[in-house]
């Protein structure tokens, strides 16, 4: 009898221990920016050194078919945080520009959207975002913070609310000035021709126009151009700043020790919360251009400044993982590593150095839905719960993190909206061999670009493209003439019937199938069309957060830590970082 009692007690305790561990783990999410899947040792790179990331793969699960919901930062991150396709939240653009460019624009992740941070926060988690946000700041005034991380479930924010781009770093060129010069040249030519024609008409008496009006017109054009140039030459003061919670602490930010600062912030957040469940989202500005690396890493890699930046990020990840060990949290923490999209292959500096990453065998890169744009690294580690050294080849999505961690935190999934991600735990623990993703929809901005279909109990993974980007120059592996690929009009080629590939045999997307080479060609396309029509029906009309009105610079929304006359400059970081 007593033995029986002891046995039952033991079983009860054992199951408790397991349940205790399985529920409410700490969550650490690492996200790189524009890192290519081919940049990492664990995905086959032999010359870049990423020992800490590779170790994560050894100690956990490596997803080889992990798909970002979008090939661009803003929409991909919106989908990651909400578990939903970006079109559902209005975070998908109908025009050329697909991301936020300015800190003073009114678009952003709508307040009604529910992030995993919000749900974990409600379950008692301490939540922090350290690093890049890129999902908006304000709506109506320069300090309503409607889109700010603190309004989306994070208790603590230290980082860059917008984006690190070339214009943030003196000496690293500009993504705007080149475009503006082109625009100005054409604009000036048109204005010149118009003026001369008017003068001629005036002179021969066909048309009378007072010189005063011409003068005003010229003045307005010059003021406009002047303002535009002034704005872009001062871009970094207005857009490249760091915040701690709601306060601007460094405007413009300094690249000096930037990665150390993010790392220290992450470590001290872990220390402050070592006895309570926490969510840490460490979102690196690495390895988006402008590239940078600290002294200790500059010139050390075999791949220029790009490689130095990757290796510095890997070092930082090692530091954070070490902090988990230090506080004995290794067994109670689920760690995830990914990139928001594929490498930006068009990034080449003016002196010819490659500043974009490597997508391995995959075609294209960032801004396209070729595999190179969306096939991203996906590593998950949770010692004692997930088998080490696993490799999972079935399609998964970065939207899956949402339901996975929400469930682990013991929170309920919202039931008033569609969540497109699926819980990864059954797959990671080996109780199922396939996720519920039969279809994945690939958008280029707001345009449905391609569909991936992994039929149940089939080896094939079909991918059908409704259009493909026109690479330029022709025959290259990207849109080098425009720096990114665009999603509609003359920038793409439409395909009817759609271009069909079987990724299980042709991951490089080299040979489109035809009715001759694939006997089920039309049936496959029909099944895909059916899925598209069901999916399209599930999309409600929502306000577009990336409309021109919502991405424009609105001076009254400009966050500025000093008076405008002082040029939006301040530095409240400790001296050594100044
Ligand atoms: C490793 O990454 C670098 C930098 O992106 C790239 O140039 C190189 O080709 C990659 N090497 C291999 C073997 O994948």
Shape: globular
Strand-residue proportion? 15-25%
Q: How would you name the CATH homologous superfamily of the largest domain? A: Alkaline Phosphatase, subunit A
CATH topology of the largest domain: Alkaline Phosphatase, subunit A
- Secondary structure category: alpha/beta
Tell me the name of the CATH class of the largest domain: Alpha Beta
Please mark out the parts with pLDDT under 50 across 5 or more consecutive residues, or reply none: 12-20
Summed up, the helix count is 14
Overall structural domain count: 2
How many angstroms does the end-to-end distance come to? Answer: 71 Å
| Ligand kinds | 2-acetamido-2-deoxy-beta-D-glucopyranose
Number of strands: 16
Helix-residue proportion: 25-40%
Radius of gyration: 26 Å
Mean pLDDT: 93
Strand count, sense and barrel status of the largest sheet are: 12 strands, mixed
Give me the strand/helix succession.
HEHEHHEEHHHEEHEHEHEEEHHEEEEHHE
CATH architect. name of the largest domain? 3-Layer(aba) Sandwich
